[in-house]
Amino acid sequence: MFSKQPKKSLFKDNLLKTLLDGLKEVEKVQVETKFNLAQNIENFLKNKGISKSEFAAILGKSPSEISKWLSGKHNFTIDTLMEIAHALKVDITELLKFKPEPLFKTEIKVQRKA
User: Fold this and answer.
1) Whole-Å CA distances, 55 to 14, 48, 64, 90, 107
2) CA-CA distance, 18 to 34, in Å (whole number)?
3) 107 DSSP assignment
4) Where are the domains of the chain?
5) Which pLDDT does position 31 carry in this prediction?
6) Distance between CA 38 and CA 34 in Å, rounded?
7) Please, is 1 exposed, middle or buried when counting C-beta atoms within 10 Å of its C-beta (0-12, 13-18, 19+)?
8) Is the dihedral angle over the CA atoms 31, 32, 35, 37 positive or is it negative?
9) In angstroms, how far is CA 1 from the centroid of its own chain?
10) Closest CA to 59 of 25, 82, 90, 26
11) pLDDT tens profile 42-52
12) What is the mean pLDDT of residues 4-16?
């Protein structure tokens, strides 16, 4: 249902890591959830071939409000999520389905002595 090449997660960025370091654990989860939700909405728009401007018109919102939503900083209400789901013709639970990604990935190589 999502595009094959989803938008790159902002959580892999060192700048964001620095910004998140000062937050409580629950605040980190809140920030991550907002970014993932915004990313899901944007993926649905791309998969359905709906531009941000078209989406704004469908919802009767300004394009700048849609940009704010997709920035990952917006704190959505249930009512707004219901409007978005209705406009995208998906169940609201689909907007909230995302695979949690670790904030930081580390690659470890193990070598055996011969």
Assistant:
1) 32, 11, 11, 14, 39
2) 18
3) -
4) 12-95
5) 83
6) 6
7) exposed
8) negative
9) 15
10) 82
11) 999 999 999 99
12) 55
DSSP 3-50: -SSPPPPGGG-HHHHHHHTTS-HHHHHHHHHHHHHHHHHHHHHHHHT-
CB 34 within 8 A of CB 93: no
* CA pair distance 91, 44, nearest whole angstrom: 12
Place of tokens 């009512």: 79
The predicted structure's pLDDT at residue 4 = 47
Calpha distance 65→74 (Å, rounded): 10
Average pLDDT for 1-28: 63
Q: What's the predicted TM-score (pTM) here?
A: 0.68
CA-CA distance, 74 to 68, in Å (whole number)?
A: 6
Q: Phi and psi of 70, rounded to 5°? A: -80, 0
| Cα(18)–Cα(104) distance, integer angstroms | 11
Provide the CATH number for the domain formed by 12-95 in this structure: 1.10.260.40
- What kind and span of H or E run contains 74? none
